[in-house]
Design a protein that fits this description.
The protein is an alpha/beta fold and 550 residues long. The protein is 47% helix and 10% strand. The protein has helices at 13-42, 56-78, 123-126, 152-167, 172-187, 237-245, 249-266, 281-288, 319-325, 331-342, 357-369, 391-398, 406-411, 426-444, 448-484, 498-512, 533-549; strands spanning 46-53, 92-99, 106-115, 138-145, 228-233, 269-272, 311-312, 488-491, 494-497. The strands form two sheets. A seven-stranded mixed beta sheet has the order 2-3-1-4-5-6-7, sandwiched between helices. Strands 8-9 form a two-stranded antiparallel ribbon. α7 (249-266) packs antiparallel against α9 (319-325) and α16 packs antiparallel against α17. The longest helix has 37 residues, at 448-484. It is elongated and about 160 Å long. It starts with 12 loop residues before the first helix and ends with a helix.
């Protein structure tokens, strides 16, 4: 009997259904992974700029100079309007997109958070912006203005103290992320790493390829935790300081040396900008945020020669380069003095002068017994003294405020570098002025009878003076006539008295003006020509004057 050679399949319907479902799941996972990868590729890198200092207008100028090309390209390509800039109150915000050189690809989107006042009340607004995810993608920018360069050190100290206050309240994860970021920044551009602009730092020899340069003295001693850039705007006003304040190259060099020494401790960069001239500001800011063009490399070149185009990249400067700028600058004292400036208590509270404590206590004792309680005058407060060796004090002694005259500086015994004036409250000022107005009003409101009496006395006095003047005048004329005597002259052999002749002429002229009776119509009388009395009077007067002169 032959054996059955037919083979039966063990592939059942149940197994077929399970395999098909598994295949569909694999296809769904494949498509979802592809879509996720495409979406992540199209997602823009988000960068942040924390813009501190300046005014509302100067912050707008910074934004326009930074995003001028990008906004023009976006407007031409998309036809959309510019993003609004909301920086009028407290923490402001705006954004812009960075395009590649071909104006097609968007490299990143930058969000700007602006703040103009270093008040401690705004620290709570900055803290939510600092997260472990945003720290590697954030750049801090501090704006300074050449209209008031004598305030720069004080402004820098206020902003850095505010940032340190915010950073001290962060959690451990944020602190660890800041340390990692600062480690990367400290090694950038040293040895065989990458420069700030993305180009490779070529070592001198092949043996130095894996060796980084050591950190010099005064470098990275006060790292904030995030990269810092200081922008000095309106460099064209340097000419105005030369013409009006008598500044010379020495003053500009001292300002630059102070800035470079202070920023060297924080590993920060420095740049001078002019609104009407192109600068390397976009390249510096975008390179600091890690944004580099894929088509065209834009190298970042340092410049410490052109005084209005200064550019100092991070990890480039050193004490030796600062000393070369001008001899006699004590870079060690300025660097150590900045440490003392950052160690003060912040915010700083105004204090009373030394001789005002007893007076304040006396006022309190008197107020306890009196009915009204008097508050201490705000003018009695003054700025606290600077610490010993303060860099702020050294800077303000070298770069003085021209609005402070010599008398004011010599007269101020406690704080000669005071930049602010303590003012009273509006209501208190108006209350004082109201009291003064009431005093003046009481002086002006006198009884009307008294005023009338004064007016009558004045009128009587003036009338009596007028009568006396007329009498004195007549007496003087009589004395003159008595001294001269009658004026006589010979006219055609006849001796004529001039005064008598004038009197007759006056009487005749007066008689000639009176009305005459009408003559009868039939009576014919020959008309005699009327004599010109005025000419005769002028003639005799001239004769009298001649005789008197003779």
């Amino acid at each position: 009997m032959a054996a059955n050679t037919n083979r039966y399949s063990t592939y059942t319907t149940a197994s077929t259904g399970s395999d098909s479902r598994n295949g569909e799941k694999e296809k769904k996972e494949l498509w979802s992974s592809m879509l996720d990868s495409v979406a992540s590729a199209k997602r823009l890198p988000e960068k942040n700029i924390l813009l501190l200092g300046g005014s509302v207008d100067s912050q707008r100028e910074f934004f326009e100079s930074l995003s001028r090309n990008e906004l023009r390209r976006n407007t031409d390509r998309q036809g959309s309007r510019k993003p609004p800039i909301a920086n009028s109150f407290a923490l402001g915000y705006t954004y812009y997109d960075v395009l590649d050189a071909d104006q097609e690809d968007t490299l990143a989107r930058i969000s700007l958070y602006t703040l103009t006042d270093p008040s401690p009340a705004f620290a709570s607004l900055i803290q939510p912006l600092i997260t472990p995810q945003s720290i590697p993608n954030t750049l801090i920018v501090i704006l300074l203005d050449w209209s008031q360069p004598w305030k720069w050190m004080r402004q820098l100290r206020e902003w850095i103290l505010l940032l340190r206050t915010v950073f001290q309240k962060l959690n451990r994860e944020c602190s660890a992320t800041m340390e990692e970021v600062m480690t990367v920044w400290r090694e950038r551009g040293r040895g065989g790493g990458l420069n700030l602009d993305g180009t490779s730092a070529v070592p001198t020899t092949s043996a130095d390829a894996d060796v980084s340069l050591p950190v010099g003295p005064g470098e990275w001693e006060d790292a904030l935790g995030m990269p810092l850039c200081v922008v000095c705007q309106n460099a064209e006003k340097m000419e105005h300081l030369e013409k009006t304040q008598g500044w010379k190259e020495e003053e500009f060099d001292v300002v630059l040396q102070f800035l470079r020494t202070i920023l060297l401790r924080h590993g920060a960069s420095l740049i001078y900008t002019t609104p009407s001239l192109p600068s390397q500001l976009p390249t510096l800011v975008h390179s600091s945020l890690g944004i580099h063009s894929l088509l065209k490399k834009q190298p970042l070149k340092h410049n410490v020669i052109d005084r209005d185009k200064i550019l100092v990249p991070p990890n480039w400067d050193s004490w030796g380069k600062i000393r070369v700028l001008r001899e006699g600058f004590d870079v060690e004292s300025v660097s150590s003095g900045w440490t003392a400036d950052l160690s003060i208590a912040w915010p700083r509270q105004p204090q009373r002068p030394a001789n005002g404590d007893d007076q304040q206590q006396g006022e309190k004792i008197d107020n306890e017994t009196g009915d009204e309680e008097q508050e201490p005058d705000e003018d009695e407060y003054e700025e606290p003294e600077e610490p010993d060796g303060s860099s702020v004090a050294l800077y303000e002694a070298s770069v003085q405020d021209p609005t402070m005259d010599a008398l004011h500086i010599a007269g101020s015994s406690s704080h000669s570098t005071k930049l602010e004036v303590q003012t009273t409250e509006t209501q208190q000022f108006l209350e004082k002025q109201l009291k003064l107005l009431d005093v003046y009003k009481q002086k002006n409101e006198e009884p009307t009878g008294h005023l009338a009496r004064i007016k009558s006395v004045r009128k009587t006095t003036s009338d009596s003076l007028t009568a006396e003047d007329d009498q004195l005048k007549q007496q003087a004329e009589a004395k003159v006539l008595e001294h001269i005597g009658p004026v006589q002259f010979n006219m055609g052999g006849i001796q004529v008295d001039a005064d008598d002749m004038l009197q007759r002429l006056k009487e005749r002229q007066a008689f000639g003006t009176s009305p005459e009776p009408l003559s009868p119509e039939d009576e014919t009388v020959e008309e005699t020509p009327q004599m010109d009395t005025e000419n005769l009077q002028a003639f005799f007067t001239g004769l009298m004057n001649r005789s008197r002169q003779s």
